[in-house]
Amino acid sequence: MTAKTMDDLVSLCKRRGFIFQSGEIYGGLQGMYDYGPLGVELKNNLKSAWWSSMVYENDNIEGLDASILSNPTVLKYSGHEDTFSDPMVDCKSCNSRFRADQLDKNICPNCGSEDLTEPRPFNLMFKTNVGPISDGSSFAYLRPETAQQIFTNFKNVVDSSSKTLPFGIAQIGKAFRNEITPRNFIFRVREFEQMELEFFVRPGTDEDWHKEWVKKRLHWWEQQGVPKDNIELYDVPDDELAHYSKGTIDIMYKFPHGLEELEGIANRTDFDLGSHTKNQDELNISAKVMPNNNSNTRLAIQDIDSKKWVVPYVIEPSAGVDRGVLAIMNEAYNVEDLGEGKERIVLKLKPHLSPIKAAVIPLKKNNAELVNKASDLKKRLQSLNIGRVVLENTGNIGKGYRRHDEIGTPLCITIDFESLEDNTATVRDRDTMKQERVSIDALPDYLIKCINE
Ligand code: GAP
After folding, report:
1. pTM for the whole thing?
2. Distance from the alpha carbon of residue 307 to the mean position of ligand 1, in angstroms
3. Mean local confidence (pLDDT), 21-33
4. DSSP per-residue codes, 300-367
5. Does any ligand 1 atom lie closer than 6 A to the CB of residue 196?
6. % of the chain residues with pLDDT over 90
7. What residue owns the CA closest to ligand 1's atom 20?
8. Is 268 a pocket residue for ligand 1 (Cβ < 6 Å)?
9. Ligand 1 atom closest to residue 186's alpha carbon, by position in its atom list
């Protein structure tokens, strides 16, 4: 069962410390959220699953962590200064502003007036001042996608890691968009994180690689607990394509508020490297790019066989971390009927994503022998380096189980008086609620097996 409503998720996220409205004590800041103690663990686990699947499992993919503040020249040649905008309309009655393409008919959703302005482009990039003088002469953009710094570092990575085609550069990091109408919790926000791969291929092989990456990404989402049944692929029509794209397949997920984009996989052709390169005329660039006399570097690679300089095509799987967290929470959220009017909320996260991997619970909170044994076990399990393990010393086992069900902890391990005699503990499985007696010495392997399943 998936979440009934977005409100169920928002409420769980706040109650249990996953996600909070940013600056809430001062009324909040629209389109910004903060990840709390459990949210940061879940988010880090998701990012690390992506990083492993990209960088560690593929010797032809390298990582990058580039700056967020971007030289405006980069975003001029990337085309973002001219085209990265949404159509905006104003309501002349109540002065609210909306995205024209999201309006139901031409009616103001705030006051019902039909007296709206004509749509006009609104650039989504945030600007900030760089240095001590704020007269507008020296500014930077907060990057609207992580991708551009991958393109501008293309030669640095090729030269330092001796890559040949096909190869990729992966990056996870913040991106910023001044969305006209941020909404639906963490789905559309103004500050978010992206996990982006730019995969450089020989021109002519791009369409096969595009298909290949769509397959790989669907499989990866399934491994994170987002099944194909709740996904649809959207082949973006030509008139909706981003300025750099020859073809984009969006992975659309059934979010609580409707079917929307979780990840986009674009064929960016040689547009970006071609735009940022010097000597454009000497290279065989197929995309329509702006003439560039500012770049001091040739962003091309020498073909091993022909020795000709080639501007590679780029396949770009680009996923939103926050949308990933939302999809994963939605899939994991279950309300189970326990009979007699009782129910439990259980977050059936894949164990590798769970914020807490195991809770060790002494049966009595004031019994030093039980607490010491539980504490030793916590330290032993924590040293496995598989994520967070907690000592839950509240003295209320039932409450402990309920809390850990709701936050998705796969195993609760209780240390009781029998444990002191025979060195065993009771292990309770989150999903089945079944309990079994396991030797404490076998618990490290037991937990590792559970996390890796
Ligand atoms: N580099 C390509 C790119 O940025 P995009 O489709 O604009 O393409 C990629 O964004 C992904 O980033 C989206 O699929 C989505 O998951 C996420 N994303 C985009 N805008 C977002 C926003 N305002 N809030 C949260 N996530 C967003």
Report:
1. 0.96
2. 37
3. 96
4. -EE-TTT--EE--EEEEEEEEHHHHHHHHHHHHEEEEEEETTEEEEEE---TTT-SEEEEEEESSTT-
5. yes
6. 94
7. 188
8. no
9. 25
CATH code that applies to domain 354-452: 3.40.50.800
Residues 6+ apart with CB under 8 A from 226: 253, 262, 327, 328, 331
Ligand 1 center to 178 CA (angstroms): 12
Atom of ligand 1 nearest to the CA of 145: 4
Give domain 6-84+144-329's CATH superfamily. Bira Bifunctional Protein; Domain 2 (3.30.930.10)
Strand order in the sheet with 313-320: 61-64, 167-176, 191-201, 313-320, 258-269, 247-255, 231-235
Residue whose CB lies within 8 A of the most ligand 1 atoms, among 318, 321, 326, 328, for a mutation test = 318
Phi then psi for residue 445, to 5 deg, are: -65, -40
Q: In what order do the strands lie in the sheet containing 127-129?
A: 69-70, 139-142, 127-129
- How far is the centre of ligand 1, averaged over its atoms, from the C-alpha of 35 (Å)? 18
Mean pLDDT along residues 100-105: 86
Phi-psi region for residue 76, left (φ > 0), alpha (ψ -120 to 50) or beta? Answer: alpha
Protein residue whose Cα sits closest to atom 15 of ligand 1: 320
The predicted structure's pLDDT at residue 3: 55
pLDDT for 253: 98
Reported as a single tens digit per residue, the pLDDT across 406-431 is 999 999 999 999 999 999 999 999 99
Q: Which two tokens stand for residue 391?
A: 């000592």
Domain ranges of the chain: 6-84+144-329, 354-452
Strands 231-235, 247-255: pairing is antiparallel
Does residue 322 have its Cβ closer than 6 Å to ligand 1?
yes
Tell me if 188 CB under 6 Å of ligand 1: yes
Six-digit token pair at 281?
């005329």
Percent of the chain with pLDDT over 70: 99
pLDDT confidence bin for 453, thresholds 50/70/90: confident
Between residues 138 and 18, the one the model is more confident about: 18
The span from the CA of 411 to the CA of 429, in Å, is 5
Average pLDDT over residues 390-394: 95
Average pLDDT over residues 48-59: 98
Residue with the smallest CA separation from ligand 1 atom 19 is: 320
Ligand 1: residue whose CA is nearest its atom 18: 320
Whether 1 shows a pLDDT value over 70: the answer reads: no
Please state the rounded mean pLDDT for residues 228-255: 97
CB atoms within 10 A of CB 197: 27
